[in-house]
């Protein structure tokens, strides 16, 4: 049972505070936090571990596979250059010249013939830069770039080959690839790969000469350029023979791995060369992006689960509110016998008991009015007041339910507390009249509810002398008119404005009359609509869009009879005024029981 005495209210508030700590907001917050934390932690941990392991393995395999492909491309490139060069032997005359030990008679004619075939080879491919023939008998022919290649005849060329390849013999070896540094005419050096082929007499197999051709190192380095500047090619001894960084060519590979990323290397064909690269982490980066996307997906999935949990929990927790709303709607339809029977012990129960008390009071008023014919008008007035309150109550409860379903318990609680204070003043402890000061407090709570529920920042101004503040007027006189302004004058996207309440005392026919004017600076109305609403105020049934004004006017007529007047003034886009006059003297009130 709710006690409305001052002491009782204080005790109830203390009990309410103890319950609130473990109320709706606590249940929802704890449930969502624990479920989201567990699901998100497990999901992200599993995904991150799986992706990290798989990414490292795939990156290693892919780098090795790419290096092997690059090595095969190098071999194919060098083999292609070698096949192009030995195409000289496809010509019968050239084969007799190159693979014969007989002495050359007409050297000029023979030189031109060989030189022409060399030029044909150079024009056929861009890989080969120079071709040279050195015969043992001193005959030599060269075509291509002219630089210092370190040899000029058969013997000097053989020495260069033996310098780079240990145990090389003209009797036993056939063809070899040798990385060399060539002194250019501009004073710089450039790396080449020299292919040296021992030419043997067809009949006796005796060495008769050496055929050499050169491939630029840049041609080879292009085969693995996509590995970046840290990739290079080494011989069997670790000497760098090709590199993206040209300054490293000719140097030994550094074996100090301190601060150096892990390298990957593969052998290049059967030449005992090794292609080495510091792998770029493209795959790892891509996998990290994938892991991030997956984790975000997991987070989104967890959020979805949280939303689902919030919906289910909120639905369970707001069941009593919906039940109370149904009772209020039935009450608004005229059924005053239903009562709220919730047993949750939370804030909703508190509101339901308050509403039950209001229904009990209304039923008490109606039962008493039925017994006393002198209070028929009082019963009509209370019935009209009861029609105002339930509409505001279940509309406000709709908003509170919305915030609870969104897990905004602070806002929902703020709305419920404001609504509770509003209805305490509405009940007025059963008194039909209260002071203008109390009515203004009632309006303050109402505007606070509108500010919370509708988000409209409407300012309230008053022009009431202090001497008139304690004059008694019927309860819920200003609030329906203020509500009418919210619903119509400030509808839609109009979220600010002002409402002004003015009260003055005048003498009319030797009687003191209170003139009350409630004005807003909202949308206003045209003349036709103003006349239509004003005509509806004086009808027996409520007209369209004027229930609040009609309700107030009907109650004032029941209190004061024909001495009460109400009128409406408005200008479209400027303002709306509701003006009414009521007698101040208490003896003019129709019922002596008030």
UniProtKB/TrEMBL annotation:
<dbReference type="GO" id="GO:0005524">
    <property type="term" value="F:ATP binding"/>
</dbReference>
<keyword id="KW-0902">Two-component regulatory system</keyword>
<protein>
    <recommendedName>
        <fullName>HAMP domain-containing protein</fullName>
    </recommendedName>
</protein>
<feature type="transmembrane region" description="Helical">
    <location>
        <begin position="291"/>
        <end position="313"/>
    </location>
</feature>
<dbReference type="Pfam" id="PF06580">
    <property type="entry name" value="His_kinase"/>
</dbReference>
<dbReference type="InterPro" id="IPR003660">
    <property type="entry name" value="HAMP_dom"/>
</dbReference>
<keyword id="KW-1003">Cell membrane</keyword>
<keyword id="KW-0547">Nucleotide-binding</keyword>
<keyword id="KW-0812">Transmembrane</keyword>
<keyword id="KW-0418">Kinase</keyword>
<dbReference type="InterPro" id="IPR036890">
    <property type="entry name" value="HATPase_C_sf"/>
</dbReference>
<dbReference type="InterPro" id="IPR010559">
    <property type="entry name" value="Sig_transdc_His_kin_internal"/>
</dbReference>
<feature type="domain" description="HAMP">
    <location>
        <begin position="315"/>
        <end position="367"/>
    </location>
</feature>
<keyword id="KW-1133">Transmembrane helix</keyword>
<keyword id="KW-0597">Phosphoprotein</keyword>
<dbReference type="GO" id="GO:0000155">
    <property type="term" value="F:phosphorelay sensor kinase activity"/>
</dbReference>
<dbReference type="InterPro" id="IPR050640">
    <property type="entry name" value="Bact_2-comp_sensor_kinase"/>
</dbReference>
<keyword id="KW-0067">ATP-binding</keyword>
<keyword id="KW-0472">Membrane</keyword>
<dbReference type="GO" id="GO:0005886">
    <property type="term" value="C:plasma membrane"/>
</dbReference>
<keyword id="KW-0808">Transferase</keyword>
<feature type="transmembrane region" description="Helical">
    <location>
        <begin position="24"/>
        <end position="48"/>
    </location>
</feature>
């Amino acid at each position: 049972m709710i006690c409305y005495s001052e002491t009782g209210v204080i005790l109830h508030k203390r009990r309410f505070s103890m319950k609130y700590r473990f109320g709706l907001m606590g249940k929802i917050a704890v449930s969502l936090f624990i479920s989201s934390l567990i699901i998100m932690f497990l999901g992200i941990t599993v995904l991150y571990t799986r992706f990290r392991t798989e990414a490292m393995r795939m990156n290693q395999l892919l780098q090795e596979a790419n290096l092997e492909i690059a090595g095969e491309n190098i071999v194919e490139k060098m083999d292609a250059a070698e096949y192009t060069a030995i195409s000289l032997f496809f010509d019968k005359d050239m084969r007799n010249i190159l693979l014969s030990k007989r002495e050359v008679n007409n050297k000029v004619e023979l030189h031109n013939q060989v030189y022409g075939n060399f030029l044909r080879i150079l024009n056929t491919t861009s890989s080969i830069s120079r071709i040279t023939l050195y015969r043992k008998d001193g005959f030599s022919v060269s075509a291509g770039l002219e630089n210092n290649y370190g040899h000029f005849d058969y013997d000097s060329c053989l020495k260069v080959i033996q310098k780079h390849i240990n145990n090389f013999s003209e009797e036993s070896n056939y063809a070899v690839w040798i990385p060399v540094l060539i002194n250019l005419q501009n004073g710089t050096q450039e790396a080449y790969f020299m292919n040296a082929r021992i030419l043997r007499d067809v009949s006796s197999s005796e060495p008769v000469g050496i055929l050499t051709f050169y491939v630029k190192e840049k041609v080879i380095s292009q085969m693995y350029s996509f590995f970046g500047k840290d990739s290079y090619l080494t011989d069997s001894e670790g000497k760098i023979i090709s590199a993206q960084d040209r300054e490293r060519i000719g140097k030994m590979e550094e074996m100090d791995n301190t601060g150096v990323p892990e390298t990957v290397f593969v052998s290049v064909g059967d030449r005992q060369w090794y292609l080495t690269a510091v792998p770029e982490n493209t795959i790892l980066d891509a996998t990290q992006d994938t892991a991030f996307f997956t984790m975000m997906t997991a987070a989104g999935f967890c959020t979805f689960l949280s939303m689902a949990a919030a919906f289910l929990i909120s639905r369970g927790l707001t069941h009593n509110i919906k039940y109370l709303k149904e009772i209020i709607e039935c009450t608004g339809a005229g059924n005053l016998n239903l009562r709220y029977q919730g047993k949750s012990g939370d804030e909703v129960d508190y509101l339901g008991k308050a509403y039950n008390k209001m229904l009990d009071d209304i039923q008490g008023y109606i039962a008493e009015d039925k017994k006393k014919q002198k209070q028929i008008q009082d019963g009509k007035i209370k019935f009209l007041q009861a029609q105002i309150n339930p509409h505001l109550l279940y509309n406000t409860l709709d908003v509170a339910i919305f915030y609870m379903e969104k897990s905004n318990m602070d806002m929902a609680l703020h709305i419920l507390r404001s609504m509770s204070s509003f209805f305490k003043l509405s009940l007025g402890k059963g008194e039909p009249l209260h002071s203008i000061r109390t009515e203004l407090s009632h309006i303050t709570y109402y505007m606070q509810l509108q500010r919370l529920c509708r988000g409209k920042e409407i300012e309230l101004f008053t022009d009431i002398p202090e001497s008139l503040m304690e004059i008694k007027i019927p309860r819920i006189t200003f609030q329906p008119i203020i509500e009418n302004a919210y619903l119509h004058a400030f509808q839609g996207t109009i979220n600010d404005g002002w409402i002004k309440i003015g009260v003055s005392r005048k003498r009319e026919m030797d009687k003191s009359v209170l003139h009350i004017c409630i004005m807003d600076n909202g949308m206003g109305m045209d003349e036709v609509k103003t006349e239509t609403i004003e005509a509806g105020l004086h009808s027996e049934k409520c007209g369209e869009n004027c229930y609040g004004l009609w309700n107030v006017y009907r109650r004032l007529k029941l209190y004061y009879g024909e001495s009460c007047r109400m009128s409406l003034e408005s200008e479209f886009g400027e303002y709306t005024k509701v003006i009414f006059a009521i007698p101040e003297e208490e003896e003019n009130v129709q019922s002596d029981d008030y």
